[in-house]
């Protein structure tokens, strides 16, 4: 196992992060929620090469593995990026036919685990309204996809990665708030009852990221483990963040609610907690899981059809 | 347990006969998270209840009440919730301020303020929290000074529920220059409709605005509009909150029970009840509901003497945490459709989820509740304050 990114990969993730953070500011999100026009980022996604992260080199792409896309998805989650860039570049593109890659792709793949898709990736006009005001969703059309397991694999990993980014953002906002908000003559962050919440979130984030990266590299039952861990971390991050913010956290005025609403929306996408927990239970108890210590260091190679 | 009087049957019959027709649309509405539903009709409904004598049933007969026992009050609240009566627009005046005026007010104040509350024609809101006095509630900066027989008030309150539909606000303000913490405060009764008061709604993440900021700039009330004396403000403010933890708790639990039933029946309809993890969580929520009910009944019996028993300190954190978890259960039972707003509106369970994010915050956060439990119920030392401020009293 090697969890380290190469310098080139890390630079790519950092560049994507700087771009997302710079463009998708809270001001942009507020404008979008109010129905006002905002910057169209698609030309820049293309210009910066972000659409070709997972495109084979032979087709002019960067041919990066899914784990690099997970790093980029974490950055997108951190920024609260509402544009369906991750879905397109990390799920649709790797499952597109080679001849499709020569032109611009603007569609979603189909999956039973994602009943609603972004309107920008669909021709459907059956609009539905999300609890997250920045997600423009339509009902997904039924139908088959040949590589459905791989699609669900990519979907779960990249959603989990976005949840890590969202968790980190909610944590950072809360740490800032706990240092500036004073009660009882002190910054509220000096009270154990407050700071312990944030320490718990930080710990969970750091323990979740390796799981998600491992699952991105190896697939298999780790994918279920990763999505469950990411959901638990993100729900805890949201709950702790609003608690630390007190009444302000419940207002529209602070930015926190944008990240909480995205979190609540993404937790259920590409398999909710119950779905992945059942899969994990089946794997551990009913399947052919190799459970002993002699299997700890065995390299698991993802078989076709997994997870 | 003693025998319940016929108040339950009498009120139930009245609800049956009167909570219908134009009021039908209020059924189960205006619960927490849904406070903006039908404001005008709800005020009319309050007048309906007032005219029939159903506001202030717990007050002494001398002030138009029925001197109802605690058990009767519990029955009253349960029947109201059982009939699906809407959230009470007048509850702050009826269940918080009126008992405070009756216990600590002057005869003139009783004559001046109780009739409007009793008739369901005058509404009150609570001016306690300030931007820098939240968890640290005694850090009040709003100032009041006496000038030519009037109190002049300057400052700001925040998180004021229902201020836009209210006629009056009770304000805790600092009357002694240089005083800190719980000392030097006054408890004033102030008319909202005056030039010195500006009410601005706070937009919530759910999009509605139930809370407000209330700004005071030279706002006035009569010298006599003070409950207690100068320096008694904190004592009166806390006594008022003591009335809150009363019989309405059981009415609130009826709302919880209704929410629980909706979640359980949705799980039966959409097949989620097959899921062993959902089953466990539904059963656990049921157990919590029952624990809350019997604990509340026992606590109320124990507090018949007037003083709240130690269990009372624990009720808020228990129900708030239970309700927060219920909100998450509701979303999980809805499954993938939990994210979607039918017709662009939050449905009842989505509102429950969003609102229950604030349960562990308003009215004293879970963290403050734990401090209260540790310090008052267990007698542990107080958490040290910063800034070298010593709190007296």
What does the model show?
The complex is a heterodimer of chains A (307) and B (393). With 307 residues, chain A is mainly alpha-helical. Chain A folds into 2 domains: 7-112, Acyl-CoA dehydrogenase/oxidase, N-terminal domain (Butyryl-Coa Dehydrogenase, subunit A, domain 1, Orthogonal Bundle), CATH 1.10.540.10; 149-288, Butyryl-CoA Dehydrogenase, subunit A, domain 3, CATH 1.20.140. Chain A is 53% helix and 5% strand. Chain A contains 10 helices and 5 strands, in the order αααααβββαββαααα. Chain A has helices at 7-23, 26-33, 42-47, 66-79, 85-92, 148-180, 192-218, 222-245, 256-267, 273-286; strands spanning 116-118, 127-130, 136-139, 182-183, 186-187. In chain A, the strands form 2 sheets. A 3-stranded antiparallel sheet of chain A has the order 1-3-2, with no helix packed on it. A two-stranded antiparallel sheet of chain A has the order 4-5. In chain A, a hairpin with a 5-residue loop joins strand 2 (127-130) and strand 3. The model of chain A is unreliable at 301-307 (pLDDT under 50). Mean pLDDT of chain B is 89; it is low at 388-393. Chain B folds into 3 domains: 7-89, no CATH class; 125-237, Beta Barrel (Butyryl-CoA Dehydrogenase, subunit A, domain 2), CATH 2.40.110.10; 245-377, Butyryl-CoA Dehydrogenase, subunit A, domain 3, CATH 1.20.140. The two termini of chain B are 38 Å apart. Chain B contains 11 helices and 9 strands. With 393 residues, chain B is an alpha+beta fold. Chain B has a 4-stranded mixed sheet with strand order 1-4-5-8. In chain B, strands 2-3-7-6 form a 4-stranded antiparallel sheet, with no helix packed on it. In chain B, helix 1 (7-18) runs parallel beside helix 3, helix 7 packs antiparallel against helix 8 (276-302) and helix 9 crosses helix 10 (348-356). Chain A binds chain B through residues 115-116, 128-132, 137, 182-186, 188, 190-191, 193-194, 235, 239, 242-243, 246-247, 249-253, 257, 260-261, 264-265, 268-269, 272-274, 277-278, and chain B through 129, 132, 134-136, 139, 158-159, 202-205, 207, 211, 275, 277-278, 324, 328, 331-332, 335-341, 344, 346, 350, 353, 357-358, 360-362, 365-367, 370-371, 383, 385-389. Strand 2 of chain A pairs antiparallel with strand 9 of chain B, so a sheet runs across the interface.
